[in-house]
Amino acid sequence: MAEDLQRKNLDSPDETRTFDQGRSQVVTLGDFAVTRNILLPGWKWSEHIKPIAQTDSCQVKHTGYVVSGRLAVAMDDGSEEEFGAGDAYVISPGHDAWVVGDEACVAVDVSSETAEKFAKEEDKGLLGKAKDKMPGG
Asked: Does residue 37 surpass a pLDDT of 90?
């Protein structure tokens, strides 16, 4: 059956959310979703997503791996971790995050919560126009 074998390419996503210093590309296959986050050098959740999320820290659970670049994460309790290419991660709600260094961080997230909620808001007026600055844009 067609449902038994499905394929979509993140280069042709079902949805793209563009925000200042980054973008999220989402594909959905039935009840499974994958999000590719491309975060440019200088991106920081508390500066670039907080105005969209309207929460003090990121309240989305992330599960995935880093394809390239580096990402630092600080939990609300003060604990910190840095992730690089090839690192798999689970990041619980209640954190800030930022790109480390001068290379874009590309991360693939398989959390349906990320696909449904990360950098998403009804008022598109807060979203930046960074698409032409993005790699592969």
From this structure: yes
